[in-house]
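Dear Dr. L.,

I hope this message finds you well. Following up on our conversation about the binding site, I have prepared a predicted three-dimensional model of the protein together with glycine. For your records, I am including the exact sequence and ligand specification that went into the calculation, followed by the structure tokens. Please feel free to forward this to your student if that is useful.
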Amino acid sequence: MSPDILAVHADRRARVLRALGDGAMVLPAAPEVRIGRDQDLPYRVDPDLYYLTGYTEPEAVAVLTPGTEAPFTLFVRPRDPDRELWTGRRGGVEAACEVFGADQAFPIAELPARLPALLAGYDTIYARFGGGRDDVEALLRRILVDARRTRPRAGRGPQALVDPGRLLDDMRLVKDAHELRLMREAATISVAAFREAAAVIRPGAGEWEVQAALDAGFRRRGADGPAFETIVGSGENATVLHYVRNDRPMRAGELVLLAAGALYGRYAADITRVFPVSGRFSGPQRALYDVVRAAHDAAIAAARPGAAFDAVHDAAVAVLVAGLVELGVLTGDVEALRADETAYKAYFPHRTSHWLGLDVHDVGDYARDGAPRRLEPGMVLTVEPGLYIPATALGAPEALRGVGIRIEDDVLVTAEGPEVLTCELPVDADAVAALVAGE
Ligand code: GLY
Ligand code: MN
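The resulting structure of the complex is given below.
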């Protein structure tokens, strides 16, 4: 990793060390997940650990102890020529200090002996339970239990456990210049792969062929791979929000929904587009598409600094509900239907946006003290309104039953307004249709 990037991680660490006060932070690497007899699932780093250290090897634990001579300790798996023969070079304790800037580093086997002393002087431990590192959790539990006994005489010792997100989520929510460079690249790569995947769409081709084009398009351009399991849902499959089977041949006259994004430099993009398999939208398909498209445009326009997070969703809902009434899917007064989530939830069951970053559904509160968060420059969110008409919606016009449409772009909030990072991919129905191979 380049020194410039490591300096970015070091700056973030310095901010956290200042914010910790009487607390220390413990960040374990994500667990390795084994499947079957000896197959490991592809390893994914823990985003919080990566954000603060850049460290990517499994098993590691970072400990931040403000006010000490060695505020950044890394416990890592040591060099091991036998294992390195099979799985590649390890940095060991040497690289932990020399490359990653740890003030001290130890083999991970020494964690149980050393962690109690490292944490003994702090009231609060910032650590997360439930992440799958049972070894670290058992150790922290023991430290807290022991401190209950020793604290009265020592006059100090851990007595509170706080989620590190309390300090880290807000930092991660507002992207720095380094992150935005990676997110722009993830977006650019994703757009290019979507164009290639659209060119594979024609009657008779398999959903899996489109998935292959997307995933190959990401990898070919240097992305780590897909940020999440690629979704290619044709026909009624488009009404399943996270459909990932991708095992059905596409048929003439249907729509196909692609939801995917590259992971580049560990940052995610997240795009959804819907294409007509034959290269032309039918009248009813186009009418539904244009409603979602108008909702997408209205929601993006609402993503301005100072706006409430919910204003983006509300802008989408207003357009979607009016459209559903116009198309004869819903009946009744538009204002009343808008105000009643249960009236439209059958057709628009999810929210319009999520934060985007190291996690595809990134960290950060959407509301504080009961009030929606205000958007700030540097925040990145998706805008992804959709309409999904169940095949069983007998009240809906027949031509729309079993049709699912979602349009998703990635939006950076800037002082000047919304900047669509994925804007190079067309949204207009004619332009989208022109991208497919068709009949
Ligand atoms: N774009 C699909 C999702 O965010 O879940
Ligand atoms: Mn999304």
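In brief: The longest helix spans residues 177-198.

With kind regards,
A. P.
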